[in-house]
Design brief:
By secondary structure, this protein is of the alpha/beta class. The chain has helices spanning about 20-30, 85-95, 110-135, 170-175, 195-205, 220-230; strands at about 5, 10, 15-20, 35-40, 45-55, 60-65, 75-80, 100-105, 145, 150, 160-165, 170, 185-190, 210. The protein is built from six helices and 14 strands. Helix 2 runs parallel beside helix 3 (about 110-135) and helix 2 runs parallel beside helix 6. It binds S-adenosylmethionine.
Length: about 240
């Protein structure tokens, strides 16, 4: 049975407390009762929580046993910076789909003003990821790194897969089937696509070029499609 999960606002030994909007939602909207059980996220683990007190601004729980979690494959999204409103939509959806980390990348065809403004935007991206993690009941939000130039992030740990709309040698599903165990990095290009010299740099660094199909997808669509496919491949 899937119990609704909440992220604890305060922990005290084997007691947890939900506060603010979440407490109000649980108390007034869901009309929670003393004795009801929920999954409570406590510092990165999930424990069974039984309600001991309900008030409009605070719900208190007694914490019981740890609830085992399915082991997933850590996926990092290397995302070329593109129009902020659509990039932020992609960050929200990628968080819901369980991405472990997002590395924003300044690509050759990233608009100059976006490249310039990206550094100042990273904090906002982290807030968006935090809210989406809460909403999707993740144990913790994905790590969002500072934006960097592509050259600085061509050799990450794990299986390296470049989503390529025209020069792919395989499909994403096949690339994931053949992937070694451990983490995976998925790279998605900017609106204008990767430049030739960037594609050569990816090839030289041993990235697998994978297709998501014959149609040209917008960057945010490609990112979400790739994560949805990858999240279907459990840890080996
Ligand atoms: N330069 C391309 C064009 O206009 O022909 C479009 C680039 S596309 C908007 C942005 C990124 O999405 C690409 O660099 C690639 O990473 C990814 N992408 C889009 N469609 C894809 C597909 N069918 N297969 C794999 N990746 C795709």
């Amino acid at each position: 049975m899937t119990r609704r999960r909440w992220i604890a606002d305060k922990l005290q030994g084997d007691r947890a407390f939900l506060r603010g909007q979440n407490a109000h939602h649980l108390a007034r909207v869901l009309r929670a009762k003393v004795g009801q059980e929920f999954d409570i996220v406590c510092d990165g683990t999930v424990r069974l929580g039984r309600i001991t007190a309900v008030a409009d601004d605070e719900v208190a729980f007694d914490l019981g046993a740890e609830v085992p979690q399915a082991e997933t494959r850590p996926i990092t999204l290397l995302l070329a910076v593109f129009k902020f409103d659509r990039m932020e939509w992609a960050i929200e959806k990628a968080t819901e789909l369980g991405v472990a980390a997002i590395q924003p990348v300044i690509a050759r065809r990233t608009d100059a003003h976006l490249a310039h403004a990206a550094d100042k935007r990273a904090e906002r991206w982290r807030r968006i990821a935090h809210e989406a993690a809460q909403q999707s009941r993740r144990l913790s939000p994905p790590a969002i790194a500072e934006p960097v130039k592509l050259q600085e992030t061509l050799n990450p740990e794990g299986t390296r897969i470049l989503l390529a709309e025209s020069t792919a040698e395989t499909t994403l599903a096949k690339a994931l089937e053949n992937a070694a165990s451990g983490s995976v990095v998925l790279a998605v290009g900017p609106e204008g696509g990767w430049a030739e010299e960037e594609l050569s740099a990816f090839r030289a660094a041993g990235w697998t070029f994978a297709s998501l199909g014959d149609t040209i997808l917008r960057a945010e669509t490609a990112a979400i499609a790739a994560l949805a496919i990858a999240s279907a491949f459990p840890q080996k």
